[in-house]
Design goal:
This protein is α/β, with parallel strands linked by helices. The protein is 28% helix and 27% strand. β7 and β8 form a beta hairpin.
């Protein structure tokens, strides 16, 4: 079983977010980046579990510059066999997916895993785009996977129920809570990660599908407004004119 796990970097949730003077570019100075937790905790670990069950290889792939290599090495420390970095700063989800699909086409992967979304953009777009470019089935928000030979039984949660899908390889799957448990790299893994291959590949040409007009920070939280429990008219006025829910 040959598995490719897509990993991305995201700002740590405690980072202070800022944009440049044009409000079109995220300012990375002073920001601590981490591996996207959904990629790390769910997609990568489930891939490693399948390798332990069925044998094979788990590679990770990342689209980004050399500043991402510490994140890639962490994936190798957790247990991935090899890594691929496409030396490119993507402009949108389609760009990212195009770079990944181009590599996957020629390397004979059976499965491609990624997290259900990234913490920064929350787009949930790359998995579906990769599957479309490869003409593979795509299963989103998987919470359970049982794999036997070339057939998988996959569960994903829906509002009010669970969807069960049977699918043959190859396919692309985005992973959600429940499919695996986080693994912490140990000292042996960290030492071995330095010896594992990290291949750097030039990007393909890809046309941007979106144009950023501007970013906006959310407005600050309003102060607490205290109302007397006996003043129903004032409460109704707040609901109607300030909160706009009446």
């Amino acid at each position: 079983m040959k598995i490719l796990v897509c990993i991305s970097k995201t700002p740590d949730t405690t980072s202070k977010i800022a944009f440049d003077s044009s409000n079109k570019k995220f300012v990375e100075d002073g920001v601590q980046f981490i591996m996207n937790p959904y990629d790390e905790w769910y997609a990568l670990v489930r891939g490693l579990e399948l390798k332990e069950q069925l044998g094979g290889q788990v590679d990770v792939i990342h689209v980004g510059d050399q500043n991402s290599e510490s994140i890639i090495r962490k994936a190798l420390a957790i247990g991935a066999d090899a890594a691929i970095r496409i030396d490119h700063t993507p402009v949108d989800s389609f760009d990212t997916a195009s770079q990944i699909a181009e590599i996957a086409k020629s390397r004979g992967y059976d499965l491609i895993f990624l997290g259900k979304e990234t913490l920064d953009h929350n787009g949930s777009e790359v998995g579906g785009l990769v599957a479309g470019l490869l003409d593979w089935p795509y299963i989103a928000y998987a919470s359970k996977l049982t794999q036997q030979n070339d057939t998988a039984i996959i569960e994903s949660e829906l509002e009010g129920g669970v969807r069960v899908i049977e699918c043959k390889v190859p396919f692309v799957m985005s992973c959600a809570k429940g499919i695996a448990e986080q693994r912490i790299p140990n000292m042996m893994g960290i030492m071995n990660s330095k010896k594992k291959p990290l291949e750097v590949i030039s990007p393909i040409a890809s046309e941007a599908k979106i144009e950023i007009e501007k970013f906006e920070l959310p407005s600050g939280k309003a102060s607490v407004k205290m109302l007397s429990p006996d003043n129903i008219d004032e409460l109704v006025d707040v609901f109607k004119n300030e909160l706009k829910i009446l």
